Amino acid sequence: MRLTRHRPRRTSIERVWRSTRSSGLKLVSRWRHSLQFRTVLLTMGMTLIAFAMVGAFLSHEISSALFSERLYQAEQESRRGFDEVQAIFDRAETNDQATGQQTIYNTLKVLEGDSGSTRRMFLLLQKPGEQGQRWVETARSDDSQITSAVIPEELREAVRRDDGQYYQSIALPVGSSDVPAIAVGRIVRVPPGTNYELYLIYNLSEAQDTLSYIHGALWVGGAVLLLAVGAIAWFVTRAVVAPVSDAADVAEKLAAGQLEERINVEGEDELARLGASFNHMAGNLQDQITALAELSRMQQRFVSDVSHELRTPLTTVRMASQVLYDARDDFDPINKRSAELLYHQVERFQNLLADLLEMSRFDAGAAVLDIGDADLNAVVRSVQDGTAILAENVGSTIEVQLDEDTCMVEMDAKRIERVLRNLLVNAIEHGEGRPIQVRVAATDNAVAVTVRDHGIGMTPEDVAHVFDRFWRADPARARTTGGSGLGLSIATEDVNLHHGRLQAWGLAGHGSNFRILLPRRRGEELVDEPLALEPPDAPVPAVDTEDTAVILDPADADATVVLDERSDAASTAAPAEPDGTAAGPRDGTLDGPRNDGPGGPGESTPAGERAGTTSGGTVAGGAR
């Protein structure tokens, strides 16, 4: 026996609902993505509204004209009929009931029949409270369903008041349905001198049939007109939208790198001129992009070649400077100082050359990771030990806080160590002798390292440039630890290779905080943020200082840096994160006035400036 899972059957209502919902979603999607579909529907909708308004007006006018015509005819014929019947009754001589009844029926027969295009019937009713001899109680046309209930009470009361002629629209029963009619009534004196209510009823079914035919013709004509307008709108919009759609497709291919794509131009109208202009623009862009790409390759090759070619003579110069530096005690003071300057500048030149070679590898896409399981805590401790002497020289202390004894991460330990060393040296350079905190925290899929100093902080003008190559916030500020000016750029590229993020926060006069976010395992997506970018001890600028903070708008895909209204500084734009969103909540308030290599920090601006924000690690503030 084979057991299968029972699946409940869908009812017809569920199937209809799912089908309707699917169709509705398709229509909504088509409405949002098709200009032609939207234009045709809007044109047909507006045409339908206009036709409904015109049709309602025409229907009202035609029905009013038909009713007025029938009413005028009924009034004229009724007046002549009432006068004729009253004259006959006045001349009639009746002595007994039989003769009186015969006279009354024969006379009323005059009012019955086909009067032109409108059928007419009569109804004779007793006038309530009338005294005198009565030959008949009521009389009506043969084969009719007319009774006193057909005549509205309002009309009867109006007829009883005086000898005038009155009318009212009524519903006349014919067979199993009602048809529109007009009832006209007046008092007549019937032999032997008794007053009765006499009503003439005009059947308007033919007029109603005429109006129904006109309505049907309007509906059919409107439907045909609506379809015709829709077809016309479709053909017209297609003639305009099709070239635009082709241009969009070609533009997407150009954006994807297919620079040889062009629009097929036909005719000499505006769209043809647009296509020709687009092709001309695409051709110029292709030439410029090709030229720039070639120039970039030449520049990269030049930097790489020069860097390689300089290594040999630099090694010779370094050896010579080392010999002079070791023998400096035998020189006079001037030559001794010259030997020291030569040695230190050659060392700095060697660091710069090494950084240039590294950047050339990044530009050429030749940089690769040596991935392996490594203890991030051990890397942090190693960097702490390596920079302890530098921190001691400026009076700073490095405090390391580790949430766990070990923190294993799949990473290139040498590159991450270089990033941490660069950040820590920058913090020492700009910490103004105050303590520096380094903290490591981790979740199941991410790790974070923050480097916090309490030095000069950041300014808004530094936001867009903090990760630029060779950029200095204040060229007048002297470097105390050397450095090539490429440190943060290289750090950003190293973090990018790990699919992580390098971000920073800063506030003028209150220091800075750099954060590294890395996936714990290779290829995982960064979801968690183990440590906040803004440090817990960060003051609120509007309360604690007179400065105005610069924040990164997390809702803006372009990551626009927005200044407080009280600030006269211009807004600065920073790139978005790799996923297209701005760096996390308050992600960054940063970017400090620094940009240096592992050998030394960058420049800074005096305290008291406004705060800035930015993020790197998919390139922040213009980093590549």
What does this structure look like?
Residues 305-522 form the Histidine kinase domain. It is found in: Cell membrane. Residues 614-624 have a biased composition (Gly residues). This protein has helices spanning 12-33, 35-91, 97-109, 153-161, 205-255, 270-326, 333-363, 376-394, 413-430, 460-463, 487-497, 541-544; strands at 113-115, 118-126, 139-140, 166-174, 177-190, 194-203, 372-375, 398-402, 408-411, 436-442, 446-453, 501-506, 512-519, 550-552, 560-563, 572-573, 612-616. α8 (376-394) runs parallel beside α9 and α9 (413-430) runs antiparallel to α11 (487-497). It is rod-shaped, with a radius of gyration of 49 Å. It has twelve helices and 17 strands. The strands form four sheets. Strands 1, 2, 3, 4, 5 and 6 form a six-stranded antiparallel beta sheet that branches. Strands 8-10-11-13-12-17 form a six-stranded mixed beta sheet. The two termini are 66 Å apart.
